[in-house]
Batch of 2 targets.
Target 1
Amino acid sequence: MLTKRLSRPHRGLWPAAAAVLASMCVVASAVPAGAHPTGAKNGRTYYVAPWGRDTAGGRTLLTPFRNIQECAETAAPGDTCVIASGTYEETVVPARSGTAEKPITYRAAPGAKVTLSGATQVRGWSPVTGDDVAEIGKSDPYALNSAFSGAVEAGRVYSTDVDLGSDVTTVQIFTDKKMGIEAQWPYPGLDLLDPELQYAGAGSTDATIADADLTRPAGYWDGARALTSYWYVSATTTVKSSGVGSVELGAAPPCVHKVVPKDTRYSLSGKIGELSNPGEWFYDSAAKRLYVYSTDDPALHRIEARTRPLALDLTNISHTKVEGIGLFASTIRTGPSSTGVTLDGITGRYLSHYTDITRGTTDCGSSVTRGVGDTGIVIDGTHNKIVNSDLSLSAGNGIALRGQNNTATDNVIHDVDYLGTYAAGIAVQGNSQTVMHNTIYRVGRSGINLQWGTTEGLAPGPDRIAHNDISQYARLSLDTAGIYTCCSADMMGSSIDHNLLHDGTPTPGVTPFAVAGVYADNGQSNLVIANNVGWNNLEGTVMLNGLGTGSHNNGVYNNTGGMTLFYVKEPGQSTGTRIYNNIGAIRGLAGATDGGLVLSNNLPAETDPLFVDAAQRDYRLSEGSPARNQAIPLPGINDGSTDATPSLGAYQYGAPKWTAGARR
């Protein structure tokens, strides 16, 4: 009877349906239909599956809803939506919240692979012909005799009519679930965290990029979009005029206010003439036509466009659990009033995308902060958490942690901030936030960007950033760190402790500056930076910059890997800051001690600490280490040594070795 009921209307789906129903029966075998399997009392269980019907009621395995939204419209406090394998192309907006005692749960069925997708398939492809190029040339004569026209002649360019809106900077195209890139020069390749780079040449200044490699005819780049990056600033603007060997930008890069020869990297896009490499696309927003470069018929592939940025909108929702759900080309957002939301086991790819950083402004703040608070998975409100999740591929953040008393724990985050802005693996705003046991790697700027903010009506408190393993940061920006925090804020005793911070990877070919494990920049005060271990960082494990308002009352204790202090020789720049019990060279002492900073019991740089095996990154102390029995005792900081007196550095002799990173 089961086979008969499912196979008639959905014959092609039967094998997948049977497999998922088998897994869902694990739940059904122990729980009566309509009962909540593991959640709050009196809750109902509803089912969702790609072969279901939204009018079926959703109360049994045989009568599932078709869309998650239908379950979200129906579910009441204590209820659970169990979701079968499949791709659901929808934005889910729940109709109501749960309660603290009876949360609403959205859960993948046991063994199911559930994906909420923000992408829509694009069809109707046809080869672009020489006649098409001639027609394009009537409005864009530079398309004639270009790399694009050559690709058309080779039979590599296809197009179709599709409305993707008027803003090309938010268009994102995928082929077989992999992101393509907008046609641009230079062709960066398909790994945006390791792109092919082009640098401004001799003669560049202010808003002028001079480069002998700019060989396109005069006027070719007029009106194009330009991305520039120098020091700590990535910015976008338009090209005002162009000639062979140079382009004049509509505005100089903000903050730094100039293009710097050999150090400013740049790229140019918005011209169909560049459509000539694998993975590239071009969208004509006026004609609403999409072009792709393909070595074979696009109909043989699944080509999609991002059309729904949000997969799950929890802006006005509280006391809700989301478990085991995948995201593709979309994300999840909670709101300022959200509380008690748990995201558990989320697998997210291509969370956020945009290419316009500066949005026409010329002030520093707008350019360096775009995407910090509103990209990636956005956790706002209070007492919400994201745990056990795998997040990758975002122009902005992996996670934006806003509000107060929210948590990000045991997540793996990588290949995010591919624009190299102040977005991060985890962008921490607000206060009283907990970020622990995350693994973060391959990021454009910082692994964790820690900024201070308050929540109206709530008393602020310290953050805890601990036991994270962060590596391969600063791939597209400088003046940053694995954990970066700025500027002139009282951090109220926030603790950055027990983190592994290693292998900062600044952009090759540029003048390096300030890549550290932890970097408290421009006058951060009342921080505790303790028991961190770093290696392969230009400025060591810790860097303090006391410029601006000064950097006061910081405790830098028991870190391993050295540090850099950046202070002017001015009284009061570093009053109350104590640097005790650290291992590794300390640079910049003169200006720091003049400002009131106190150093004590740090192992001299010339003394070998005799680690267990530094070559294998085991920085525990060997039996003969001169760092044993040498530390100032600091309760809660350097407890646990089997010696009479604590050890210097991040590992106490004889104590169990602490761990960092996601515990999975």
Target 2
Amino acid sequence: MGQISVIVTVYNKEDYIEKCLDSLLQQTFQDIEIILINDASTDNSKGIIERYSDSRMTCYHLDKNVGVSKARNMGIEYASSEFIYFVDGDDYLAPYTLELLLNNIGEANFIGGSIFKAGKIAIPMEIGEDSYYLRRLSGGRKIKALRRRSATNLLLRKDFVDVQELRFDEQATFYTDLTFSIPAIVNTEEIPMITGVPTYLKGECYDPIDQPTLMLHSVEEKLPDLFYVYHKMKMSYTDTKSISRYLDLLLLNYYSKSITNKAVKNSNVLFDHFTALKNSLSLVAPGRIKRRNIIERREHRLLQKGKKEAVLKSMMFRVRLRQWRRSLRKKHLLMRQLYRTVLVKMPMKPKKVLLESFGGKGYSDSPRYIYEELLKSDHKYDYLWVYDKKKKDIPGNPKQVRRLSPAYYYHLATAKYWVSNARMPNFAIKRPETVYLQTWHGTPLKKLAADMKEVRMPGTTTEKYKRNFYNEAQKWDYLVSPNDYSTSIFRRAFKFGKEVLDVGYPRNDILYLEDEEKARRQQEIKAKLGIPADKKVILYAPTWRDDEFHGKGKYKFDLKLNLSEMQARLGDEYVIGLRMHYLIAEHIDTTGMSDFVYNLSDYGDIAELYLLSDILITDYSSVFFDFANLRRPILFFTYDIEKYRDSLRGFYMDFENEAPGPLLKTSDGVIDAIEHIEKIEATYQSNFDAFYDKYCHLDDGHASRKVINRVFEPEKAEM
């Protein structure tokens, strides 16, 4: 076996480079040299790299950013081994990758392997000959080696690279892998390819907004390089049918989808690049054009005649036709198409207010208290409450509309005001006249949105989750904040640049009722729930764990509290109410404990449960920030704090030192604390006071009125 020079290019990859380098150093084939080109990173990539002291690593730290193409070309010049292999600094390898490629290259000039997205496939602990497929590509089938258009995961002979003078074109930033890979393919007879087993893993993009990977950059940014690379490769390999066909299809498909979709939204995408697009498409083989649909064929003729406006109109028609065809497959797709093409063009209703809490799951939280304060005022609005499965008992008799029903789409499109405490559907179009008031639903302890590194939720990826969240936050006009601490985090995590209402949470107004009124409401709630009037109430309200699921929409939760022991030791004085996240509430078994355990997970408004409760048990849920307004004791059942703090979500605050109550790791510890609750209160009094001053300083019982004065009253003044 010959030695391999692994060329790693790095630019601002501090969140990824450690995993990348560890995967190289842990390869089952160890006879490698790692040539690392740090392309003038401005983050901590250099510091992370310098922590490694392995003799197989040679690092070149550039003073000026030169781009990935030149950085790779430098790596080729530095390479001294029989083989070379390219790795991007945000990707990583399965442990057997290099050995597998080397064992199967034979006499070929290079060998390739499949590229997988991280998290989409499990990496086996070990592999045998029956674990993968070895295919040999020749003739026109060689273009399959261009899948994903990447030069990574190719193990190449260094002398082949030198003889063919294979290099990356340094005049472009995007699509430059093709300038290396296409000549390599053309100048080799047969290419062995490993498939069926993960070898090269594309890392998830942790910051798709501010630091997107090359593939995630906008169409506008990539177009000049696409035309340049297409033209250069097309002119060089016109006579190589498979390559010429590949290039033509690459351009035509990109034109038909990405360029068209962007041009429909922003005509400058077409107009600014019209000449380059026209010249590139003129090189496409006529037979390829003839195979396109009749609309595209006509569009190409218009484009060659220089008719910009006509081409744009044709693009708009083609996009609309595609959308309608897709929408006819399912009812919900048809409703969304009607929504974005018809309903959002209907007259806006200036007195219509659409409210929803947790996606229609309840009549609760800050939207509820804003609504009830509006009812007390002299505002004359038409109120619509969104419900998910069944209608709610709501004062004022507002119109209730079922989420995702035909009526929902109509009201979403025509309501001037949206009031919500969570994200609206991704398809929601905020019209210029719409006022979107986002109240959010908690003071952040756990990392949020853009501040999260990895998102571990079923059915989504980190890149998709963060991009969707960013798009949502850009629709907000106002964002309610409960304290100065949250304001700073919200602006950064949500990348929110509009007006933050630093007024406290409307949902906490109820916690500032007079003491007599609080006591009366507490007894009313007890009576409604069937809780004995003489029993004190413990509220257990834990958070949900992002990684505890069986599959998409199927969550699990292991209740660590020993309810039987709690009943035996505390049942004479207390009952316990369980307030679980709705995703796992139905999986909690309380059979045989109906006189002690009350499952309050479906109770509409948690603020009323705060009034009900004498003690709160929680963990990392934001409920303790709100409950602290009552100045009642809080216990933290944090049996998995190391995992949650260090690997799952991470904390913003110094939770272990700032928590206004003890952090307990066992069920017995929780029970002991309740039995000695007066001592706990005395011990944590100073912690509690400092916590209250920092996190509850804006709440005063009038947040709802302050929100209305800012969001709704200006309109009244204009009338």
